[in-house]
Amino acid sequence: MKNKLPGYRKKELWWIYSFVLPPVLGFLIFGLAPILYSIYMSFHHWDMLSPPEWIGLANYVDLLKDEKFYKSIFNTFYLLLGIPIGMVVSLLLAILMNRKLKGISVMRTIYYLPVISPIIAVSLLWQWILNKDYGLLNNFLWQLFGIEGPNWLGEADWVKPSLILIGLWGGVGGTMVLYLAGLQSISSTYYEAAEIDGAGGWQKLKTITIPLLTPIHFFVVVMGVIGTFQSFSQIYVLAVDGGPEYSGATIVYYIFQNAFAYFNMGYASAGAWVLGLIIFLITLVQFKLSDRWVYQE
Amino acid sequence: MNNNLKWLSLVLMSSMLVLSACSGGSGSAGGSAEPTPSNEPSGGGETAEQPKKEPVTIEFMGHGNPNEKKIFEQLIASFEKKYTHVKVKYTSVPPGEYGQKLTTLVSSGKAPDVFYVGGSEFYRFAESGILMNLQAQLDQTDLFNPDNVWKQALDRYRYDGSTVGTGDIYGLPKDVGPWAFVYNKDLFDKAGIAPPPARAGEWTWDDMLEAAKAITADNNGDGKTDVFGVGAYNLESAVWGNGGDFLDSTTGTVTIDKPEFYEAMQFAADLNLVHKVSPNQEAEQAMNAYTRFVNGQMGMFAMGPWDQPAFWDLPFGWDIAAWPASPNTGKTATWLGSMGFAVSAKTKHVEEAFNLAAFLSLDEEGQRQNYQLGQAVPNLIDMANGEFLAYEKAPANRQVFLDIIQDYGRTDLPARSKDNQWLDTFWQEASKVWNGEMSAKDWTAMMQPKLQELYDKGNK
């Protein structure tokens, strides 16, 4: 062992590695190994009971022929609509919460609460809120406006809007906090200068606030897209068997069903890799496009 | 910087070691029975003809509600009293996670010695050689008399190397679950009509529809129906009673496009679409039909024996009846569910594992507790025909459960194929018929090729 480093550096190095080792080991054993194994498995038919049999690309071919797979992709893309809606709502909330008022921190906490609530428990509550006959929401619509509310989770056309609604409720708090941080980092000199030039509130928002927040918009969009593509828990609870006409199933739900309801592990692995590819490509495109619209100070 | 590389390779090397150690561990079969000092047989409990045996531990995994868990804990305690050298390690997991957990354990070679199998699981597991053939044990056992067990229950756990239903026994029934037609007596009295008879064939769909119309009511005049005649009507019953079927098991053909099938399906759909005596598809989802019945807002519904404890608390009178017969054939049918106990082919303690399965399945005291707590119909024929029929709690027409088991109950759909994607898709897409978007005839014609393809993919 030839070592050109002085003694104290060597000691430090040793410490660095020993601190880094546990997570790295954990990742290698529980992360990388299964990931690599799932590539290998995606070329097999494996029901977890009998030994895997090599079938080449058949899983991928079947996947591209499977109507349910396309349906689940469509559903997932549909859910992406929640992202722009969520951004608008969160930004408005952040602007409201960016005041120096008494008790504002309590308000912020209230809006942030859904983010830290366990998603399964919350989904069960939503199931009751959205129930057609006994649900809070439909009763509210009926009592106040005389509208007979739809069967939110029981009709193919309403399942996805319901999921978006729930996503908004659970997501705006987190995005709001990001925007708040962004708003507070915008120097007030810009606004002062604009006021001197006679700009109104709307103009200030359009020409200063929104452009200066583009890094945050970008972060929210990228994370939102990835998060949406990975949404599963609420679907598992709210859309039994993928919902009516499979209208609520996302790609991850579809993969899960193939893996743990039908025990087609190879097929599910192939699905997971296609999903990984989709996310990767979309994120790549977003980064490529980001130069055009994200403002870097 | 080759020093760093060395480090990195060291990290990689060591991780590889750990990895290989991990995978090496899965080779040994599960259910290792490490005798612990605590379960040494107590000298006093030994009888003369029972030679002192090595203490063994048996793993048993099941699922179920807290009630069921309690029963099993008691059963296991009495089993351990009887076989003093055996200790049972019992795990109960939530029903929804059971299949996932069991398959994972099996595939990693850690299958419990005794476990539940049900539905399509039995088929898959028997085929993959995971279950022990119990025939030899069964033939020489003096624990029970196989003739005193429902044939329909035992047959579900036969496998002949290619199909289920014939051949050697690979499991013992935990129970059979006759899916019965239940009605709210008070609502029938209020409408002034005779309740459905317990004997099969006396009541047809038309009689049922008439009764349902009489019961359906809007009590507060807000234009919304408050009491429905019938809910969650059993499609299998309608189809089978009408002479149709979902699947021809011998040829593996999906037969939903036959007139016998789609007529029955249309009848079930029209209960809501045309006659408005049933809640519409949206309101019908799982919880609601049940909740409506329990709230006294539904005349006729369906139940399994496991629903008894909840129904015993109801403030109105109820009873079970035969499923209405198809007017075209005069016949009726319904599904018969079942869950079984299987023994792992890899168990190291064949005799003890079999004894446990047999004890849980057929021990008289356990069977008695089971029906008295409203969990199931006894597996033992003499008990079912004797004290079970005479038991004082509702339903009064207990004979209906037995009729279904012996007469017109059929293996439930999920247990008829290894892979049920075709079936799941059927139920998912069926809402197009329930909500009137398509007629049953058009929809079944459209779906048949799709379902056939799915069936072939998973089962051929």
From TrEMBL, chain A:
Residue span(s) of domain ABC transmembrane type-1? 72-286
As for membrane topology, the entry says: Multi-pass membrane protein
Predominant subcellular localization, coarse grouping: membrane
Q: Might you name a Gene Ontology BP term for this protein?
A: transmembrane transport
UniProt cross-references to InterPro entries, sorted A to Z: ABC_transporter_permease (IPR051393), MetI-like (IPR000515), MetI-like_sf (IPR035906)
Q: Where does it localize?
A: Cell membrane
Q: Where are the transmembrane segments?
A: 12-40, 77-97, 109-129, 162-181, 216-239, 259-285
Give a single Pfam family match. BPD_transp_1
Task: Tell me a GO cellular component.
Answer: plasma membrane
Keywords for this entry?
Cell membrane, Membrane, Transmembrane, Transmembrane helix, Transport
Identify the CDD domains for this entry.
TM_PBP2
PANTHER family documented for this protein: ABC TRANSPORTER PERMEASE PROTEIN, INNER MEMBRANE ABC TRANSPORTER PERMEASE PROTEIN YCJO
Q: Which family does it belong to?
A: Belongs to the binding-protein-dependent transport system permease family.
Q: What is this protein called?
A: Sugar ABC transporter permease
* Organism expressing this protein natively: Paenibacillus antri
Ranked from the top, the taxonomy reads:
Bacteria, Bacillati, Bacillota, Bacilli, Bacillales
TrEMBL record, chain B:
Note the Pfam families from the entry. SBP_bac_1
InterPro entries attached here? Bact_solute-bd_prot1, SBP
- What is the residue range of the signal peptide feature? 1-23
Task: Report the SUPFAM superfamilies cross-referenced here.
Answer: Periplasmic binding protein-like II (SSF53850)
Q: Which UniProt keywords apply?
A: Signal
Query: Sorted alphabetically, which PANTHER family does this protein's record hold?
Result: ARABINOSE-BINDING PROTEIN-RELATED, DIACETYLCHITOBIOSE BINDING PROTEIN DASA
Recorded protein name is Sugar ABC transporter substrate-binding protein
